[in-house]
Every structure is written in C-alpha cells, then in structure tokens.
Amino acid sequence: MNVTGDELAGVVDLFGGLTRTELERALSEAAFRASGDSLEPDDVEAPLEAAREEFAVVALEPADASNEATWADDGEPEPLFVAGPAAFPTLPEGAEDLPHIMDVDTRRPDREALGATVRDRFLADVSSAVEAGDADRCRHLLDLSYDLEAWAPIDLTDERDRLEAALE
Predict the structure, then answer these.
(1) Which Pfam families does the entry link to (predicted)?
(2) Which CATH architecture has domain 5-108?
(3) What is the C-alpha to C-alpha distance for residues 91 and 81, in angstroms, rounded to an integer?
C-alpha cells in the first residue's frame, strides 16, 4: 500500500489524532480491507516523514499535550499525529470503516499546543531556507504561512517579512 500525505492526514483526522502505533494499525487494517495485503511498519516511515516535512501531518509531542491522548497502550508516551495545515485529508481505500474497527476515542488536541509546535517547526524551516538562499523553499514557506495562521492561533507576520526580504 502506497499512502500519500493527504491519506495519512485523512486517517488521523478520522480520530482527531493517532499515535504512530495506532496509525500503523489503522493503515494495516485499511490495506487488508482494500486488497488483502499486509502492511509492514517500515512502509509507513517514508510517507509519514514526507507528510511531516510538508506540514500535511503534524506531530504533537507528549510534553506538549494537554491530556493523556498521546499515551500508547504500553504506557510509553508517543507523539500524537494530527492532520496538518497543508493537508487535504482523504481516505485511502478500505479506511472508511476504521472508526468501527479500532478502539480509539475521538481526540481533540489543544490548538494552542499544536500552534506552538507548528510555529517552532516553521521558524526552523524559515531559518534553514533563508540561510541556504533557497528561493523556492522561501516562496513555499511564505504561502504556507497563511495556511498555518488559519489552522492555529499563531502570528507569522515577522517570519513572512523575513521570507519576503530574503526573496528581494
């Protein structure tokens, strides 16, 4: 099963957020329902990292969580993956019944914690793009900044000014 960032976002969005363990299980269930195939945990790594890179999926770390929604079944803390500001959540084939199959309650992660997480990550990306003189990445981040502000309660005016200055 090849999964896109938007499909990952669609799966986590069904529940409001999923841990890595839960996401792997959900994708495995969907793959089996769609084609009878199994899904290995390693099959999720590259698409998840790409989705995180493009802000289609955001990881809320346990220390940033306002509740225990980021705790895995074994008691070890895991990040909670949520649909990000750049996602157009869609469901992969076989995923529509996941809420009935999986025993995961709907989660409502704290928007301020998500905003802080995304802001920190965005600031690091802006610094890297500006320092590297990467005009394409700067333009992409400039466009993305508006999506981030609409998605979470953050203000990225200073970062937009920095990106615009780098593009001049």
Answers:
(1) DUF7109 (PF23421)
(2) Orthogonal Bundle (1.10)
(3) 15
Kindly give the parts of the chain with pLDDT less than 50. 68-71
Q: Judge contact between 13 and 26, C-beta under 8 A.
A: no
Cβ partners under 8 Å of residue 37, min gap 6: 1, 31
Residues of the chain with CATH 1.10.10: 5-108
- CA torsion angle for 17, 18, 24, 29 (degrees, to 10)? -70
Evaluate whether 71 touches 80 at the Cβ level (below 8 Å): no
What is the token pair recorded at 28? 């495995």
pLDDT for the residue numbered 70:
46
Q: Is 146 helix (H, G, I), strand (E, B) or coil?
A: helix
Alpha-carbon distance 63 to 122, whole Å?
Answer: 19
Other CB atoms within 10 Å distance of the CB of residue 7: 24
- 83-128 residue pLDDT tens: 999 999 999 888 888 989 998 888 888 888 889 999 999 999 999 9
Task: Report the alpha-carbon distance of residue 110 to residue 36 in Å, rounded.
Answer: 36
The neighbouring-strand residues paired with 83 are: 57
Beta bridge partners of 19: 80
